[in-house]
Amino acid sequence: MSLVPGHITLGDDEQTLIQAVGEFARNELLPLDRAWDRGEGCVDDILPKLAEMGLMNLVVPTSEGGLGCAYHTYAAIIHELAVSSPATAVTIGVHSQVGDILERFAGKSIHANVLTHWGSAEHFAAFCLSEAGSGSDAASIKTTAVEVEGGFRITGEKMWVSNGLSARWFLTLCRLKDSPKGNRFCALLAERGADGLTFDEIHGKMGIRGSRTAVVNFDNVFVPADRLIGGKGQGLEVALSSLGKSRVGIAAQASGIAEACLSEMVSYARERVQFGKTIGKFQAVSNMIADSAVELEASKSLIWRAAAGIDRGEFDRRSTSMAKLYASEAANRIAYRAVQVHGGTGYVQECRVEQLYRDARITSIYEGTSEVQRIVIARELEKV
Ligand SMILES: Cc1cc2nc3c(=O)[nH]c(=O)nc-3n(C[C@H](O)[C@H](O)[C@H](O)COP(=O)(O)OP(=O)(O)OC[C@H]3O[C@@H](n4cnc5c(N)ncnc54)[C@H](O)[C@@H]3O)c2cc1C
């Protein structure tokens, strides 16, 4: 089932794109995602195919060669991807997030030389905000940028960087050295191949194993002045404004995972027989299915509302955080029930819900934990 509400009629192009992505994901990504989970390859191996499908250029405007998707279309596409491959959904989500930031904050040369090629696999991007000592408290980062002739030099270590092992571009939040009170931030676009830029893979993740995650080390890495994204001192605003939007993408990843769980649950409840009946006939089991269906619909409604708000230019943090909080927590509950409905069968790797249960877990952690979303929602309510 699509993320798009039944009463909404999309344009033919949007509808065709969402359907094509769904078919591609079911036919091609699902078997790959299962293999990636077993440690056989990763999403990075199929970037050219994702580029060919237009998936690496969803948010860049058509005037710059992108698909210029509305945010609701973008969310529906992330949902379709996540039903079959949660790892691909986050990969495209992070790459799109950086594209969106560049589109809104970068100068002319980045628009002309980078964004116009954004849809190709060679321009794969990563977003570097978190550090070992700085997660929820983004303003406590220690990575520094020093202004030098012709640009900046970055020193520090970024942690948990999705896409980090293969990306060409690293949108990196830094603290500007020697700025007043040491609290001015800047966002810099570092490029793979720069001296001093190195990577280490983070092994042993619980889920989304097809998405590789890295520690990115910056040892006096030079970044030319035209790769300052936004102004000096605007870095935190750049990073946080993008997180506000990309949370809808993570919510859509969560709803996709929940959709897959529900579908697995329903199929299994129809075929598994105990006490002479299919288990779906037992009210305890059908209640788990019904609760999951309701929570999934509620997730989709919140996501759609938040995405449609962004499209109308009425972006508000409360709606995006509500969508992220609810959809991610619901996905975890639904994944739990999916395993429960499968009994012992759901506890082994061969069964898809075992993977979905692990994949769902990250959605309430990254791009702001559930606790952080609650803080945002309450703070926004207090402003009214
Ligand atoms: C697989 C994966 C991929 C990731 N990808 C990226 C990426 O591409 N780029 C990037 O920059 N980051 C990325 N992250 C990092 C992610 O965004 C952080 O892990 C997340 O923001 C939480 O930060 P933390 O892990 O430091 O936890 P902490 O901030 O240390 O939080 C630990 C616990 O304390 C709670 N807590 C913290 N502060 C408060 C508070 N004020 N009130 C109540 N509770 C609080 C949290 O909710 C949590 O339960 C990724 C993480 C993972 C695991």
Describe the structure.
This protein has ten helices and ten strands. The protein is 49% helix and 15% strand. It has helices at residues 12-37, 47-52, 71-84, 86-105, 108-113, 235-271, 283-311, 317-342, 352-361, 370-383, and strands at residues 125-128, 144-148, 151-162, 169-176, 185-191, 197-201, 213-224, 228-229, 273-274, 277-278. Strand 2 and strand 3 form a beta hairpin. The site of flavin-adenine dinucleotide has 21 residues, from strand 1, strand 3 and helix 10.
Task: Give the tags.
single chain; 384 residues; alpha+beta; Butyryl-Coa Dehydrogenase, subunit A, domain 1; Butyryl-CoA Dehydrogenase, subunit A, domain 2; Butyryl-CoA Dehydrogenase, subunit A, domain 3; 3 domains; 8-stranded mixed β-sheet; binds flavin-adenine dinucleotide
Give me the strand/helix succession: HHHHHEEEEEEEEHEEHHHH
Alpha-carbon distance between the termini?
36 Å
Helix content: 40-55%
CATH topology of the largest domain: Butyryl-CoA Dehydrogenase, subunit A, domain 3
Mass-distribution shape: globular
Ligand inventory: flavin-adenine dinucleotide
Number of domains: 3
Number of helices: 10
**Top CATH class of the largest domain:** Mainly Alpha
Mean pLDDT: 95
Which class of secondary structure composition applies to the elements? alpha+beta
Counted beta strands: 10
Radius of gyration using CA atoms only? 21 Å
